[in-house]
Write a structure and sequence with these properties.
Layout (H helix, E strand, L loop, with lengths): L15 H12 L13 H10 L16 H18 L7 H4 L4 H19 L8 H5 L5 H37 L15 H35 L8 H10 L7 H20 L14 H20 L2 H15 L6
Helix pairs in contact: 2-3, 2-5, 9-10
Length: 325
């Protein structure tokens, strides 16, 4: 089902002219831009054409001009999606602003869904009758009918004028030399398509720019937290963020800041060597001290209890100030 189509699906490669022709022929409208359907009323009637009777057309407002009025139309559309168990997410905040790219993508999805749900045929649907129950539906029908009649009359008048001018040119061709045709000042449909493609590319670039700017702003806010703002890694990130130069030296300086901090930590965590007043004790001196301690312990174990008492009395007597010789 079209509810789960990917962004690289063929539905998202349908052009604006094809979409406009499909909308105007299905609903008997006269839209000239996809953004004119940003109110959501056209989407509601397209769903009504595919699923007759499921959309409450009396709640749809074709005369919606403000965003809060457009949001009401999208609420009706969302209720229809919920009834049909359609999981497509509607970007209401972007659509009501009339952005070309967002409205184009959503209308491409709508066409894919309508084609898959109806099998590509909606012959029995009467859009004029269904639109009369909506707010502003009659005005939209009247405007579209008048515009269609004006276009027909303009094309007919242009045809008659072209025939008259052709006859005059034929009459004057015998008396005047043939001049090379002058290029028209208007660009034509080819230039209009190029302008539309450029607008779409600019819009996509703006969206990508806003996305990465928001990411950088989140990183900046995180680096400003008091708990981590003094860490060397955070300082290095700030140096890259706030640098005015895009050369590789900025990254090298940030890496140097982090490596210096690691060196300081390695020095602080190095083992502490034993030292005396004269200098550090060598390994041979340490071995001699250990041997002397072991010898004294062994000698104490070999002495008898009487010898130990006599040695202890000698020590006490020698250190006592009351002993006389």
């Amino acid at each position: 089902m079209a509810t789960s189509i990917g962004i690289m699906d063929s539905a998202y490669f349908v052009g604006r002219s094809e979409l406009l022709a499909w909308i105007n022929s299905t609903l008997q409208l006269n839209l000239s831009k996809i953004e004119e359907a940003c109110s959501g009323a056209v989407h509601c009637q397209l769903m009504d054409a595919v699923h007759p009777g499921i959309v409450p057309m009396h709640k749809v407002n074709f005369d919606a001009k403000n965003e809060y009025e457009m949001i009401q139309n999208y609420k009706v559309l969302q209720d229809v999606f919920n009834k049909l168990k359609i999981t497509k997410h509607i970007e209401v905040n972007k659509l009501v602003k009339g952005r070309p790219l967002d409205n184009l993508e959503f209308m491409q999805w709508m066409k894919r869904y309508c084609d898959s749900a109806s099998g590509g045929g909606l012959q029995s649907y009467n859009p004029l009758e269904r639109r009369e129950t909506s707010k502003g539906g009659k005005d939209v029908t009247r405007k579209s009918a008048s515009s269609q009649s004006s276009t027909k009359s303009s094309t007919a008048s242009s045809r008659t004028q072209s025939t008259h001018s052709a006859r005059k040119n034929e009459a004057n061709a015998t008396n005047q030399p043939v001049k090379p045709p002058r290029p028209s000042s208007s660009g034509g449909p080819m230039y209009d398509e190029q302008i539309t493609e450029l607008k779409l590319s600019v819009d996509s670039l703006e969206k990508e720019r806003d996305f990465y700017f928001a990411k950088l702003r989140d990183i900046e806010i995180l680096c400003q937290c008091p708990e981590i703002e003094n860490l060397p890694v955070v300082e290095a990130i700030k140096k890259i963020l706030y640098s005015m130069d895009d050369s590789a030296s900025v990254v090298a300086e940030a890496q140097a800041m982090i490596s210096q901090q690691h060196q300081k930590e390695d020095v602080m965590l190095s083992p502490i060597y034993e030292a005396t007043e004269d200098g550090p004790i060598s390994d041979s001196q340490k071995r001699k001290n250990i041997i002397n301690i072991d010898v004294d312990a062994a000698a104490n174990t070999t002495l008898s209890p009487r010898q130990r008492v006599s040695e202890a009395s000698d020590v006490h007597c020698s250190s006592s100030p009351l002993v006389t010789y």
